[in-house]
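User: Structure tokens for both sequences below?

Assistant:
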Amino acid sequence: MSNSKPVYDLEERTFQFAKKVRIYIKQLPKNAGNIEDGKQVVRASGSIGANYIEANEALSKKDFLMRLKISRKESKEAAYFLRLLHETNSMEIEKDGKELQDETIQLKKILSSIIEKSS
């Protein structure tokens, strides 16, 4: 997972993040907690990029900022569920989970910076 160069195109970066989340979720044992938390993190991870794309197509500055704030909110939610999954599962896939957690933090910071500069 960590062998790739950083992606500077945020649409592509958020897509790759959502894809990596789905791959990570497939590795987890199938139990009630993982299934429910997995659904949440899959939804949130996809929503980060989808809302970012919608922000770029916004009809007004207000709509643009709202979509970015939703994207940032979803990155916080993804980070929460990734942490839960990471801390309640075995260590065999710990590296992947930690990398995904780190990426959510980076995405949140990038989105916060865009919001701050656009306000």
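Moving on to the next sequence.
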Amino acid sequence: MDPLHPACEPLNLLIGTWRGEGHGDYPTIDPFDYLEEVTFGHIGKPFLTYSQKTRHRDTNQPLHAEFGYWRPMTDGTLEVILAHPTGIAETIEGTLSLSENGKLLIKLTTTHIGLTATAKEVTQVARTITATPEILNYTLDMAAVDHPLQRHLEATLIKADEFQS
């Protein structure tokens, strides 16, 4: 495997596969519980690769997936590009910080959302992620289909293994 690019060092603890459970809710849908798998990887360039997929906890039916790239900047900011199979593309920016005890905090907000002609109207997304080497927690707030920004998802994931290229 290629060595980690120095620009990605602040995100090093994310590299690998994370698995866990989450809960989703929104005014336009019934509440649901889900299983999730997230993988962060790298190819030696100044970004991490990212893939995410979820399944319904009770029926095991696929729910959602997204793929993209996480680009840490030298000033402590983070740029993220995500593509969703539902016709949505997110450009996201925010901050990342590492506490003295090694906990990573990432706060991201969409700066642009691209929608295909058939995509559901999403106008804003905000993500907060906290991670240690073993546990990743996140919340996702969303403004969509004429509803204001509000909690949509929250999950806890556990580090499953070390990333293999």
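User: Anything stand out in the second?

Assistant: The domain at 6-161 is CATH 2.40.128.20 (Lipocalin).
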